[in-house]
Amino acid sequence: MKTDFNCEGLMPKMTFERVEKIKTLLQENGTVTLHGLQEIFPQVTSMTLRRDLERLEKEGVAIKIRGGAKAAAREPDTREPVYSLRVAKNIEAKLKIANRALPFLETGRSVYLDSGSTIMCLASVLPDIKLMVMTSGPNIALEVLKSQRATVNIVGGLISHDNLSISGKQALDFIKNINIDIAFIAPSGFSIKDGFTCGNYAEADLKRSVIKKANRVIMLMDSHKTEKSLTYTFASPKDIDTLITDTALPKALQRALTRAGAETIVV
Fold first, then answer.
1. How confident is the model over 166-182, as pLDDT tens digits?
2. Which of 8, 196, 215, 245 has its CA 20 to 30 A from that of 254?
3. In degrees, to the nearest 5, what angle opens at C-alpha 29 toward C-alphas 27 and 32?
4. Which CATH architecture group holds 13-71?
């Protein structure tokens, strides 16, 4: 008789569905007991349920305890959420921020566009004017190319899976040999203790280089980034000229920007 397997073909469909149900129970409740599982799956032996828990322990999902299992604690993830998840988050605020940044653009300017979903929003609303655009985001380069008058240069290097950002030695070498009028930068976090941060060392290095070369630095940051700190600091309030955000900043952050002489624009 043919056995019905799950889509991966790794285990019978009934086993797969049972294990997934146990996994859901662990995520929702934190623990499961063999007694409780036997009530949920009365047709399954306790030995089979123990094997299910052993399987989940090997996957790193569960830790076996006396009479059942508990959910395995996950290590804190300091990486940024993948781009496909971030791009749709807080999209209305990001578009407002992007539109407020447009008055800083002038025909004939040399402009650097950072990577990230907020900068992608800016790229999507750029006016069709003559600009020399440089970017570390291949998706942003393609968006800007919809303009007939913009000239686009993209830095070389490695592309991050998480945020579609290019960085590395080639990118740094590229920045050394160009001039930048205005740089539009997007942080992943902004805190009093750590300043403007992101989750990738090479990307932070590139942002620092761009900020040093730019005549004017404009930070585009939605409110979800405030009071948040990722692993690598790339700028402090004194390194930027303008911050555009969607809600009033916490008082301590605003004071830090004011003391540094940075302008804050709330849309």
1. 999 999 999 999 999 99
2. 215
3. 95
4. Orthogonal Bundle (1.10)
CATH of 83-266, one of 3.40.50.2300, 3.40.50.1360, 3.40.190.150, 3.40.640.10: 3.40.50.1360
Residues in the chain with pLDDT values less than 70? 1-11, 73-89
Query: What is the C-alpha separation between 105 and 237, in angstroms, rounded?
Result: 22
Q: Are 189 and 231 in contact (CB under 8 A)?
A: no
* Greatest pairwise CA separation for the chain in angstroms: 76
Nearest-angstrom CA–CA distance, 129 and 134: 15
Closest of 228, 148, 217 to residue 194, by C-alpha? 228
CB 231 within 8 A of CB 194: no
Return the ∠ at Cα 219 (arms to 115 and 174), rounded to 5°: 45
